[in-house]
Every structure is written in C-alpha cells, then in structure tokens.
Amino acid sequence: MRVAVTGSHGLIGSAVVSALHARGDRVVRLVRDEVAGPDEIAWAPAAGRLDAEALEGVDAVVHLAGESLASRWTPERKTAMRESRLLGTALLARTLARLRSRPGALVSASATGYYGSRGDEVLTEASGPGSGFLADLCREWEAAAEPARRAGVRVTHPRFGVVVAGHGGILARILPVFRLGAGGPLGTGRQYLPWVALEDAVGAVLLALDRDDLGGPVNVVAPHPVSNREFTSVLGRVLGRPAMLPVPAAALRAMFGAMADEALLAGQRVEPGRLTAVGYAFRFANLDGALRHALAAA
C-alpha cells in the first residue's frame, strides 16, 4: 500500500514507518516544512494548508501528530496540545473527504485519557467518556475526524495507553531515577496504569490498516492491567533496584499542575476488548517481559 503518515518522527510514528517499510509498503510522510522532499507532503495545520493533490492515490493514512502531553499543563501548553490535535485532524479529515480517490482507511490516534479517572471500573470501547481536560480533548480529537468518516473513509481511533519502549516514552523519563534506587509509586500507587509495549502499539496500527471490520475506537493496551504500584515494583525488580519511595501527590501537583491529577494520579482500568475479539496476538501481554525487552533495547 501507499500509506501517508503524520507524526512519523515520534515514538510510535517512527516505529510504524519502519514496520510499513519492512512489509513492503510505501510511506509518504506529512511534514511541517515549507518544501517537501521525496516521499513527503508539506502541510501546515495551524494555517490550514495541505496539498490535496499530493494525497490523491494514497491507500491509507496513519495520523499520529500532536504536541506531547508530558509537561506542566500551563494555559499555553493546553492550547498548544489542543490545537495541534484538533486543527491537524480536522484539516486532514476535510482534505480526505474532498479527494476524487479517497483512501480506504484513516487510523487517527487517540488515548485512554478519553475515559478520565475511573478508579477500578473496567473500561471497554463501549464505555463513555470521562471528565476533565484530557477526556474532553480526546473526545474532540476523535470527533474532528468526522468529515472523513461521513465521506466513506473507514476511521479507526487507537486509544493508546502508556507506551513502554526502550528509547523513549515513560521509561526514558523515569529510568535515571529508578536506576539510582530512588523510584517508587506515584501518590497512593493504587491507580491503574494502562500500558502497552511499543511493538504491540505498532501491531495494532497495522491491524487497523488491514482489517475492514476494525473501525471506531480500539483500546491499544496490554490485556493484563496493573496498578501504578505494580508497575514500579516490576520495574524495580527488573532493574535489580529498590522501588519503594512514593512520590507524594502534593509534590506531583506542585511540579505538574493539573497534569498530575489527570495523567499521573488518575486511574484507568482499560481492557483491549476489540483487539482480543479479533484475535490479535500480543507480543508482550505481561509487563515483566515488556520491560525486559524494552530495557535490552535501550
């Protein structure tokens, strides 16, 4: 297939591009450059610019672009996170809807933050949205793809959990502390942490490209959810370091503001209902194996 990809240099995007090339697909990157190079299409979401003609003949689109959520959520950062997702998704969806030859599939990213903080409640794709900035953002993010869906493009929203990878994501941020033996659970540690190995995040994207029956939301999380305390305990064991020093909720709020309550202290017991139903074979269903693999590749 000829697949257009946004966010192709990010953690998931770069791995998706490699996987597409490995199986023989041709990748066209959407880039924020004034002049596009070979196999690139220039776009400027904030300015509403995207060359529709360059997208003609694309078989599918993977849309992963968006400002990082891993920072203190100041009003300015919230605006940047929101606009980078909504403007880009809406522009892409409108453009695809106007094409003479529309792609068969649009895989447009979302996140498990859609569900908000729900404690021990088991969450599937049928569960409704939660409340808060992140939940509202995810709901609007998914809705922004509606023009493509109305035009007959099959739209899939992978709701990614926390991605476990050896060269980026959560591990890159916390490994230095844990290697010093100073890591530990966040707050009470009882909150569920929806996680997924990078290899399975990529596998889910490829599955969404290939299966005509996989539209709508798809929870991209491992089948065995763990609490934050369990996650830190397993990481400490894999590293051979103690992981018993809790980070108080008050300290997290002082460092990260609203992000602490909605992303670090929030709990989501998310299950991969649709991936399981279609028989997806997880490479890393258990956290221990995922962490050992990621650390070996770090």
Blueprint (SSEs and pairs):
Elements: E1 2-6, H1 11-22, E2 26-31, E3 40-44, E4 49-50, H2 52-55, E5 60-63, H3 75-98, E6 105-108, E7 110-111, E8 122-123, H4 133-143, H5 146-150, E9 154-160, E10 162-165, H6 169-179, E11 192-193, E12 195-197, H7 198-210, E13 216-220, E14 226-227, H8 228-239, H9 249-256, H10 258-264, E15 269-270, H11 273-277, H12 287-297
Helix pairs in contact: 1-7, 3-4, 8-12, 9-10
Can I get a quick summary?
Strands 1, 2, 3, 4, 5, 6, 7, 9 and 13 form a 9-stranded mixed β-sheet that branches.
Keywords:
298 residues, Rossmann fold, two-stranded parallel ribbon, alpha/beta
Structure write-up:
The chain is an alpha/beta fold. The protein has one domain: 3-Layer(aba) Sandwich (Rossmann fold), CATH 3.40.50. 41% of the residues lie in helices and 18% in strands. It has 12 helices and 15 strands. Strand 1, helix 1 and strand 2 form a beta-alpha-beta unit. The radius of gyration is 19 Å and the shape is globular.
The CATH fourth-level homologous superfamily: NAD(P)-binding Rossmann-like Domain
- Give the CATH level 1 class: Alpha Beta
Our measurement of the CA-to-CA distance between the termini, rounded to an integer number of angstroms, reads: 31 Å
Helix content: 40-55%
For the largest beta-sheet, the strand count, sense and barrel status come to: 9 strands, mixed
Overall body shape: globular
Strand content: 15-25%
Number of domains: 1
Cα radius of gyration in angstroms? 19 Å
CATH topology: Rossmann fold
Model regions low in confidence, pLDDT < 50 over at least 5 residues: none
Please tell me the CATH architecture by its name: 3-Layer(aba) Sandwich
Give the rounded overall mean pLDDT: 94
The helix/strand series, from N terminus to C terminus, equals: EHEEEHEHEEEHHEEHEEHEEHHHEHH
Number of helices: 12
Number of strands: 15
